[in-house]
Design goal:
Blueprint lengths: L1 H25 L17 E6 L3 H11 L4 E7 L3 H13 L6 E3 L6 H6 L5 E4 L3 H13 L3 E4 L7 H14 L3 E3 L7 H11 L6 E9 L3 H4 L24 H7 L7 H10 L8 E8 L4 H9 L15 E8 L4 E7 L11 E4 L2 E4 L4 E4 L10 E2 H7 L3 H6 L11 H14 L8 H19 L5 E2 L23
Parallel strand pairs: 1-2, 1-4, 2-3, 4-5, 5-6, 7-10
Antiparallel strand pairs: 7-11, 8-9, 8-15, 9-10, 11-12, 12-13, 13-14
Helix pairs in contact: 1-6, 2-3, 2-14, 5-6, 6-15, 10-15
The protein binds nicotinamide-adenine-dinucleotide.
Length: 460
């Protein structure tokens, strides 16, 4: 008993020191968690909450490295745990401790003192609680998109991160796309002049993801919910219950880097519009005429558009478009006083520098010339990693921050800003397209914060 008490006291003291350091850090994250909670081995010790499709991509990234240990995994479904177990064994790495048995099983994983950071890849409705609890337990958080469901969820994440001093990073992989970073390089070198208008979004035909009975290799069928597989188990329901930009970060994240949002600039307000919802019902009806899932009143408009204003005068247009037949495209557009990039046509035009006046150049030569130093250095490491390599970069950036006990390159303010667009767009639509103020999560610090994202080839 006495031994247990002494151990507990020691842990409490370590924790108090941690919190004390963290409180100092809270003002601007000058000092980050250090000391007792981190291994002396130099390895980053990871816990995974959610090892479904996405969680196992992050497991795959960890298995490629020798500077991380997968200490523990948590999931509510044996099927996901089994796949993950096999994945780890196949790589010849030690088995991870497993936590399961209910929605709260992750709390037991968080109780462990030998975990430095957690990767959260669960359904959206769990992100806020799991992230807040993880930060309270002193673990760096790398959370999949999106951060939370309500505006308050986003404040809770900021407040907890500030109070505990524990960094939180949205694992927004599109920020690391090779073309996205080449354009960032060009923006910083002034090729586009002063930026005026930007576009992006999530334009991805998800019909075979939202209806997926798990029988085919790449999804498909007409089932969801309890009869569904992977995201069809939970994501489809959001399309029945909500109408808004459900997934804004893939477009917003990179755009924010181009125009220094939270770092000299900020989103001030937004307004959203939603089209009629026809795509999902039509899809089911075509595959299985008369099926009850074709008669559901899906609330989420097939195309949701959101316009945002910025303090420095730029406008941003985001599009959420996941229910209609279409090839994938984020739909980036970066336009300034000297040029424009549009990703859907892989086209670029720089005044006085493009081959012909008023005619698009192919992006190929431009992007080779302005390839970002990060990709030049790590492109070969990322080969074979998910989504054309970008999953390696985002994972690497997170692990590097944990290892060096530094702030994450996409910090808590960036994370919640790109994600809060979701509940705000929902509210705008609900209120008849009424403009909504975007909260200043930095509480004024955006005026002096500097953009440090991907400044060089250091891995961030
Ligand atoms: N950045 C990207 O490119 C990308 C791609 C795919 C998915 N995602 C995001 O990743 C997240 C997960 O998506 P997915 O495709 O892996 O979904 P999924 O349904 O395949 O996996 C989710 C897993 O979480 C588990 N789970 C549910 N509740 C849990 C709980 N309380 N505790 C522990 N485990 C729990 C489920 O059993 C399942 O194994 C989502 O936020 C999604 O939007 C991001």
């Amino acid at each position: 008993m006495a031994v247990i008490y002494t151990q507990q006291l020691k842990l409490n003291m370590e924790r108090r020191d941690f919190i004390k350091n963290s409180a100092i850090a809270a003002a601007g994250f000058a000092i980050l968690p250090s000391g007792s909670l981190f291994a002396d081995t130099g390895k980053v010790r990871l816990g995974y909450i959610g090892v479904g499709m996405r969680g196992r991509v992050h497991i795959g990234s960890a298995l490629l490295r020798d500077d991380v240990e997968i200490v523990a995994i948590c999931d509510t479904q044996e099927d996901s745990l089994k796949h993950c177990r096999e994945q780890i064994a196949k790589a010849g790495k030690p088995a991870a401790q497993e936590y399961t048995g209910g929605l709260d099983a992750y709390k037991k994983l968080l109780d462990r003192k030998d975990i430095d950071a957690v990767i959260i890849s669960t359904p959206w409705q769990f992100h806020r609680d799991q992230a807040v609890d993880a930060m309270k337990a002193g673990k760096y958080v790398g959370c999949e998109v999106i951060a939370g469901l309500t505006v308050q969820d986003h404040w809770d994440i900021v407040n907890t991160s500030e109070k505990t001093g524990v960094p939180y990073m949205t694992l927004e992989n599109v920020c690391y796309r090779r073309d996205v970073l080449a354009v960032l390089n060009m923006v910083r070198q002034g090729l586009f002049g002063e930026l005026v208008h930007l576009e992006g979004g999530y334009q991805h035909d998800l019909r075979n993801v939202l209806f997926n009975d798990g029988k085919q290799a790449y999804g498909g069928g007409v089932k969801f919910g309890k009869e569904g597989y992977s995201e069809a188990q939970w994501r489809t329901q959001f399309n029945i219950d909500r109408d808004g930009d459900l997934y804004p970060t893939h477009g917003a994240g990179p755009v924010m880097q181009y125009i220094d949002i939270n770092r000299g600039n900020r989103f001030t307000n937004l307004v959203s519009f939603s089209s009629k919802a026809r795509g999902l019902a039509a899809y089911v009806e075509e595959l299985s005429p008369g099926h009850p899932n074709a008669k559901i009143n899906y609330k989420e408009g097939d195309v949701v558009t959101t316009m945002l204003n910025c303090a420095n005068g730029e406008t941003v247009l985001l599009t959420h478009d996941t229910h209609l037949p279409r090839p994938y495209s984020i739909g980036f557009r970066v336009q300034g006083t000297k040029g424009i990039w549009m990703d859907v046509a892989k086209s670029i035009y720089i005044e006085h520098q493009s081959k012909k006046d008023d005619q698009w150049d192919s992006t190929k030569e431009w992007f080779e010339k302005y390839d970002h130093p990060l990709w030049k250095k790590y492109g070969s490491n990322a080969k074979g990693a998910g989504h054309g390599g970008i999953d390696w970069f985002v994972f690497n950036a997170f692990v590097k921050a944990v290892k060096e006990k530094k702030q994450t390159p996409i910090d808590v303010y960036d994370s919640v800003t790109m994600s809060v667009i979701s509940p705000l767009s929902e509210k705008s639509i609900k209120e008849g397209n009424k403009p909504q103020e975007v909260p200043d999560f930095t509480r004024g610090k955006w005026k002096t914060r500097k953009n440090t994202f991907a400044l060089d080839d250091s891995g961030y």
